[in-house]
Amino acid sequence: MAISKQILDDTTARLREKLAHGRVVTDPEILETYGADETPALRSVPDLLVRAENTDEVRAVLEICNELGVPVVPRGAGTGVTGGAVPIRGGVVLSLEKMNRILEIDRENMVAVVEPGVITGVLQKEALAEGLMYPPDPASLETCSIGGNIAEIAGGPRAVKYGTTKDYVLGLECVLPDGSLITTGGKYVKNATGYNITGIILGSEGTLAVVTKIFLRLIPAPAYSMDLLVPYGTIGEAIDDVYRILTARVVPATIEFMERDAIAVVSEHLKGEMPFPDAGAHLLIQIDGDTEESVLRDIERLGGAITADMEQVITAESPPQRERMWKARRSIREAIQAMNPEFIAEDCVVPRSRIPEFLKAVKQFLSPYGLKSIMFGHAGDGNVHIDTLKGDMDPGRWKELIPELKRGIYGIAIAMGGTITGEHGIGCLRKEYLGMAMNPASMELHRRIKKAFDPNMILNPGKII
User: Which residues have CB under 8 Å from 103's CB, separation 6+?
Assistant: First the structure.
């Protein structure tokens, strides 16, 4: 429902009266740039943009918009792929990009205190300069923000050893939809004081509160690491070796996989730079540790556990070698977009032992439609990225089929003991399918939590629920 001109004018006037000059933006050309994130084919231009620079400004925006019933869509760096930062019902986009300060890196307590607009890769570099490590490493780490990572519980290749964003959040400062300010947790590890509000806000995609400060746990940075690229004849052989690696008491920092179709499309895109382009699967493994001896010991143990021919394994120790090795994995989406810009991107999770079975079942499901799929992901934690390509299918038929394709892929994941998303979230693209992964009681509890935080339903409406 469109906002009336009177309410929009009142909102604009009150925000300009309360906020510093230049914070409130009405320029149509600028608004247009905030009408999309990285979700394909999804755009909705906001009525207003506010670029907040501190917590008090965030509080003012929410207090005014809550009183007037105007939707507010929090936005970080805009790198999401499920429409979480797209203002599908208009209203105000509340950009936190200027709240981008690292307030403190506390070496003694191994805690970083940051604002939500801090870029993930920047925090990692600053922590490393202090001999510390912030492990979560989403693919977009050079452009995504910590606030967005909080909203989606972002993961990344290192999740197999180090976990995801949720494992490093010690506390949050948040503004509730009515402008109230709360703090959950802080520079301490244990907290049994009341409900776990931090845990509820994590992954809530900006629908419950606006995060304005984050307390993050850091760990000592490993001194040494080595990367390996291991080729296989089939994806089944690769996943079987993942099991062998982990049961040999080797826990790699990363275990990424690419299946045959992913290797082929990247090989074509990189024009000969791809190692082992004819392999049925690749594993990319990183081993890290405190000493070179411990890393080499783990690699020796790994070599004794797996079935792959170690003479074919490529190893990399220097940054340039690592960059060449990981270029293929990081180029998958770029290669797909160059070949076929229209595709459905899913990130289902299944028990890692069932990855080969899941890949086979999805390809069998898509085969009668004549659609090609590219699959890759995190072998260590069962998170599979499935990109289904439109190809030369009629646009009308493609659009009509999308709900059916999504339901089919999600149904396969759920039947195998998995769920519909591992790290990209629900947003507005998957909300119609949430009931596939949750029973009615869980769905109702989600609605009640939303209502408890946001009784006027102004905060990022149309997302998740």
Answer: 113, 114, 115, 213
